Every structure is written in structure tokens, then in C-alpha cells.
Amino acid sequence: xxxxxxxxxxxxxxxxxxxxxxxxxxxxxxxxxxxxxxxxxxxxxxxxxxxxxxxxxxxxxxxxxxxxxxxxxxxxxxxxxxxxxxxxxxxxxxxxxxxxxxxxxxxxxxxxxxxxxxxxxxxxxxxxxxxxxxxxxxxxxxxxxxxxxxxxxxxxxxxxxxxxxxxxxxxxxxxxxxxxxxxxxxxxxxxxxxxxxxxxxxxxxxxxxxxxxxxxxxxxxxxxxxxxxxxxxx
Length: 234
Hints:
The chain contains 10 helices and 8 strands.
């Protein structure tokens, strides 16, 4: 990363009050330069540039591809307008939530949303939810869905019984105040994120922070606006 880009990035984020660990810059291979990546004329050219500097592809979807920068960082490159929109959502959301929010942190981003540097996580397993949060994934998602419906005011009937996604109400009362669950529901409701993606195990990962493991969303760029503009069939 060029010196002037690094200075601008640090200045902007220090003013925003982000913690020191978010300010860590990826340890890219010698000769790699983010500005040169941005200058590549197409997605294919960007991929060639990444691979020519020994950045291995981690995975790819219809809108973005992810490459390994180092043990703690991945770089997500937009393939199309959908990818640009999702990079924008993740960068903006990451900048506006607390440092303990259950999302993979965005460490740096291009002003045009062509790429973002994001916290690297290992793939989550269903058993991680029980071991790290204390409850099965299916039960957590039922509680989150009910909390989000309540916060969004999206109930379609006054009959509350229709919304008891978790039928064990004592367990629901216990789970809804669990910090990770409450924070997750808050983020989804406040930022209009898609519940469908969040209920998929592929959207989750596990990161190490300060010596302990945390479950985080690794793919959270699909909010209601992105869905309406780029995915909803008209």
C-alpha cells in the first residue's frame, strides 16, 4: 500500500475512533500494491494481478471473489454491480457498529467499492454455535427471527401465537438476552439485512480475537436496498 494511501486511511479511521486492532494492514507479498490492483481495467485483470502476486483464491460467488492476503485478512473483489453494492454495505456497516459486533471487520476499502480488506475467518460449523454461544444454530435463528420481526414491526397479525418460532418460551426468554443473539438481531433490524442469508451456515465464520474465538458473519452485504436493486425479480 502506498504511503499516502496508508496515511489517509489511518487518519480517517483514527478520527472515527476505531480500535487499534481494526487498523492493522494486511501483510501483502512484496511487490503487491492496492492502487495497482484498482488500476486494473477488468475483473479478470484484477484476478490475474492478485494471482501474479501469490494471493490464492479463497472462494467466489456470482458477485464477488475472495483472495487470501495473509493469515488474518482476505480481500474481496467485486465482479459486477452486485459485488460493488455488497462491498459498500459491508464497509459502511463495519464502520458503524461496535468492535464486538458479530461480523467480520472490514479493515480497509476502495472508495469505489471495487475491493475491501476483511477479517479472515475459518468456516463455521453448526457445532460452533453451541460451543461459542451456548445454543444450537437452529434455535438461535428462531429467536433472532422473532426479535427482528418485533423490531421491524413486520408482524401481520395480532395473534402472537403465530410468531412463536421457538415454542419453548422459557428458553426464548433466556436466549433473547444473550449478548451475541441480542447484538445480532439488533444489527439485522437496524441495517435491513437479509435474514435468508444469515440463516445459512456458509455466511458464518470463526475468528480469533485477543486469544478467544468468536462467531461472525462473513457475508453480510445483502441488505434490503441491494436486494431490491440487484436481485429481486421484477
